[in-house]
Design a protein that fits this description.
Blueprint (H helix, E strand, L loop, with lengths): L2 H24 L9 H10 L1 H35 L1 H15 L3 H12 L3 H25 L3 H9 L4 H38 L4 H11 L3 H29 L4
Helix pairs in contact: 2-10, 3-6, 3-8, 3-9, 3-10, 5-6, 5-8, 6-8, 7-8, 8-9, 8-10, 9-10
Length: 245
């Protein structure tokens, strides 16, 4: 464990201890804010159901993440080569991306049903925008002199793209991929809450209806752990690929 991870773990431990102490001393009702010990106890009690729900949400998030990342990268590469089309399409992309995800979720549920497909499509939709914008920014931020040098050696647009633009865009692309890990989990959970019968989002919604707020926190804990693991995995890939940073 490196120093940054150790400091993060220590900070998290101190926060949990402070949370437990404040809730116990102030006698805060569990339905307002349960103590961490109560959340952990509930998580262990319903661990089978939470693991099953977490596996479904993780499946939806990772599949949508992979599809969205691939589509966003391909679209960014195509628009990096087609300047007139980029100037026409980019404003529309920004406008669509500015709308909150909750506004699109009911449409996805209406068109694709309440199964996993609607969640995968929503995750791919949101992740695709994030990766697209970051990748396109990286692809366009190249040294004009380096591009001119490659062209002077006979490289065409695709040669410049593959040999110069893509390597130069790796840092921006991987930042987009890292940020998208958290967004993919959020989108999957929100869409599950609006229409589903499985997943952590449905578990949270069901627990709220049953006024079981400790189980809500238990589902949030599982979702947080999955998100942290997803984020850490992509961050590790980023450190290996962009090793010069």
């Amino acid at each position: 464990m490196n120093a940054a991870a150790a400091r993060g773990a220590l900070g998290g431990l101190l926060l949990v201890v402070l949370w437990e102490a404040v809730v116990r001393l102030a006698e805060v009702p569990p339905w307002i804010l349960p103590p961490p010990s109560g959340i952990l106890a509930t998580t262990w009690t319903v661990r089978a159901a939470l693991l099953d729900a977490g596996a479904m949400t993780l499946f939806e998030a990772t599949l949508g993440y992979a599809l969205g990342a691939a589509l966003g990268l391909v679209l960014a590469m195509l628009l990096a080569l087609a300047t007139p089309v980029r100037r026409l399409v980019l404003p529309m992309v920004v406008v669509v991306n500015s709308v909150p995800v909750a506004a699109y979720a009911p449409l996805a549920l209406l068109w694709f049903g309440t199964g996993a497909l609607s969640k995968v499509i929503m995750v791919a939709f949101i992740v695709g925008f994030t990766v697209f914008l970051n990748a396109l920014d990286g692809l366009l931020r190249v040294d004009p002199a380096a591009a001119a040098l490659l062209r002077s050696f006979g490289a065409g647009p695709f040669g410049v793209l593959w040999r110069l633009r893509v390597p130069s865009a790796l840092p921006a692309l991987l930042v987009g991929l890292r940020v998208s890990t958290v967004r993919s989990m959020i989108v999957a959970i929100v869409t599950e809450m609006l229409g589903s019968q499985k997943g952590l989002g449905w578990t949270i919604f069901e627990a709220v209806l049953q006024i079981d707020f400790v189980r809500v926190w238990a589902a949030i804990l599982v979702a947080s752990l999955i998100s942290l693991g997803f984020f850490a995995g992509v961050s590790a890939v980023e450190r290996r690929v962009v090793f010069w940073r």
